[in-house]
Amino acid sequence: MRLTQLRLRQFRNYERLDVQFDPGFHIFMGRNGRGKTNILEAIYALATLRSFRGVGSTQMIRHGQKGFFIGGQALSRETHEVKYYWSPREKKLSLNQTPIFKVSDYFGVLRAVVFCSDDLLLVKGPSKGRRRYLDYILAQCSPAFLNELQIYQRALMSRNAAMKGDPRLVDERLVESFTPSLVKSGEKIMEARARLLPELAKTAMEAYETVASGSGEALQLAYQPSVKEDFTIELRKSRERERFQKHTVIGPHRDDLKLALDEKPVAQFASEGQKRSVAIAMKIAQVKFLTKVHGVPPILLIDDIMGELDAHRRAALLPLLENTHQSRGQVFMTCTEKNWTQELSRSPLFWTVNEGLSKIDPDT
Ligand SMILES: Nc1ncnc2c1ncn2[C@@H]1O[C@H](COP(=O)(O)OP(=O)(O)OP(=O)(O)O)[C@@H](O)[C@H]1O
Ligand SMILES: [Mg+2]
Question: Which residues pair with 224 in a beta bridge?
Fold first, then answer.
């Protein structure tokens, strides 16, 4: 799977960019603030329709403009032409000139996994990031999962809206009218997350062994659903608390993924270095899992981290990069220094980024 062409209009600091990409390693070099990460962000947004920087799409519009456009050609078994326009007033997505109205009809055309310094939030941040980590893997394995998430989200929002206001005036029948849909989609989401875990946990444990080689600790990932047995019964039991808190207090939107090293919770007990290794191991597991399911690796987007990693952790990532290269996939990396790139078995393609992209001639 790869991206053969990228077109940007009014995206971040790019008024206009048209570029073709070969398979292999691409390294974006350039001074700070020139637009290296913005290119990775655009590729990720083309794959997932959102930014990886944890910001809304409005932020990606070039200052003073109404909307941004990202166009691309994705090549897997066949070529797909994707066009994505986003403005607060209008969103347009098309695949091979046909408009797409359901995200699930689009997801999977381009699969990408990003490695960046914010990955540490997977370990240190709130549970939302860990749910998103699981759901993103599931959505990239089965677009139908995205439909369930959307149905759940809609039911949850309607149910919560029905609980607002003076508790004495809440229409109980209205609240309960959303419960069946919440339970039905919620159970499917919990089932999918639970089914994903054993294999993902095993892959993450192996990845941690390589990342923190010789440390001797074992990484455990465990699914922690907020519903313990029966969603319907537990919702009924939580109705008193709901009346008080005015929103749905249990369900997949409250699940977490427990991370532990030798059974001790990572967030509370692990050192900074261990936390970082856990975050990288989780990302490596994501790539390996998707590669196994689809038979080809996703596009890897690596923002800045290579230069900051020590040799051990870099050595854990390198086989992943080599594997992507061997299957004629792509790796896009940003960096300000290229001192580690000789560790790659094949020479990368270097680009200079300065509010535009230009290829660096390997002979210069
Ligand atoms: N919405 C926007 N409109 C116009 N310019 C923007 C927008 N958002 C960010 N920028 C500009 O984009 C530039 C940052 O781009 P980017 O984050 O890609 O830099 P970088 O090359 O990755 O830098 P670093 O090496 O520091 O990570 C900044 O100059 C910033 O002002
Ligand atoms: Mg950057």
Answer: 256
- The two structure tokens encoding residue 112: 């990408």
Strand partners, 222: 258
Top mutation candidate among 9, 15, 27, 37 for ligand 1, by most atoms within 8 Å of CB: 37
34 lines ligand 1 (CB under 6 A): yes
What's the pLDDT at 215? Answer: 85
* Cβ atoms 87, 23 nearer than 8 A: no
Instruction: Set out the domains of the chain in order of their start, with CATH numbers.
Output: 1-111+298-364 (3.40.50.300), 127-294 (1.20.1050.90)
pLDDT in tens, 293-325: 999 999 999 998 877 778 878 888 888 888 888
pLDDT at 363 over 60: no
Question: Within 10 Å of residue 316's Cβ, how many Cβ atoms?
Answer: 21
What residue owns the CA closest to ligand 1's atom 24? 32
Phi, psi of 76 (to 5 degrees): -120, -105
DSSP string over 14-37: EEEEEEE--SEEEEEE--TTSSHH
